[in-house]
Amino acid sequence: MKVEKIVLNEKRNVTLTAYTQSTEEFRHIKKRPAILILPGGGYQMCSDKEADPVAFPYLQAGYQAFILRYSVGVDSVWPNPLDDYDQAIKCMKERAEEWHVLTDKIVVIGFSAGGHLAACAATMSKYRPYAAILGYPVIEGDCASIYQKTAPDVIAAVDENTCPCFVFATRTDNVVSIKNTIHFLDALEKNDILFESHIYSHGAHGFSICNSSVEVDPEEFCNRVPHWVADSMEWLKDIMGDFGNNEFLNPRFFPYINGNKEDVLNIDCTLAYLFSDSEAMKILDPILKQGENQQKQAANVDEKFMLQTMKLMTLRHMLSVISMPKNVIKQLDEQLRKIPNKRMKKG
Fold it and tell me: Are β-strands 195-200 and 2-9 bridged in parallel, bridged antiparallel, or unpaired?
């Protein structure tokens, strides 16, 4: 493993530390996903316990790990921290060949105020990450302004282009209110953004990876809090992929809640989305009518309920409800994937 420290802004003391595994050590793996770590510290410092201790588990899992010590104190006036993030990502992309980084598989992880910066990266940065992991994050404008008066409100920035998020916190956090996490999750839900969240019952603020190496008192935390590390890695495998067969494999699931954001139509699109496409309806009209009739008869519900069901339910789910044979489902998916998704924004 190679360790390198790069000064991104000497005046503001902004640095990027790179922990990279070379192809000489692992010849069968040419490039790896990367994680960019943003420590907490109330925009007054970058906490050491949310830096290297966080990098090591992800390195062990096969990631290239980077730690950004962004602008703090008098230099943390906005948008300096977000500019630091963008500069770090730009550096990682420019040196991707040297550092063996999959540039389309960069994940950001932030804690507390660093979680605010990571959430800003997920919602308003020039270089959006593939996914964001947020630990006991500062989110709302009123809370953020306590630590940096010019820091923006993340809630207002959440939109359909926000990346998938993994969020963890504790109910008894008495530094950053759990309302930050709850309201952020609500904003993600309203914008159809994929997320996973763990709100543990007991635990103090600033627990990092929550073991003895970061000097936390085990009596202050429920035993499940340390699980966020392994859970976040499994979540990333689900939506980003994993190592296998001497390469980085495709993910198990879409990095969004359904197939509506794919470049082509598919059976994981919602029924309402497919209903509005004339080409798709030529293929699906008989099957959709069959499924609709079955659901009405089984549930004896009104038309309004059916319209809401069609808005949320995917074609795959409906086909399973009506016990469609797997070979027919596969054929339908293949046919739909020949149709471009005209409503998907390009670029």
Answer: unpaired
In the chain, where are the structural domains located? 2-248, 259-336
Q: Tokens 């596969």 identify what position? A: 330
Check if CATH label 3.30.420.240 holds for domain 2-248. Answer: no
Give me the phi and psi of 162, to 5 degrees please.
Answer: -65, 140
Q: What is residue 343's predicted lDDT score, i.e. its pLDDT? A: 83
Q: What is the pLDDT of residues 225-261, one digit of tens each?
A: 999 999 999 999 999 999 987 778 889 998 999 999 9
What the block records as the tokens of 114 is 């660093």
Task: Please tell me whether residue 111 adopts helix, strand or coil conformation.
Answer: strand
Alpha helices in the chain (DSSP H): 52-60, 80-94, 96-99, 113-124, 141-147, 179-190, 227-240, 271-275, 278-299, 303-312, 315-321, 326-336
The whole-angstrom separation of Cα 281 and Cα 247 is 38
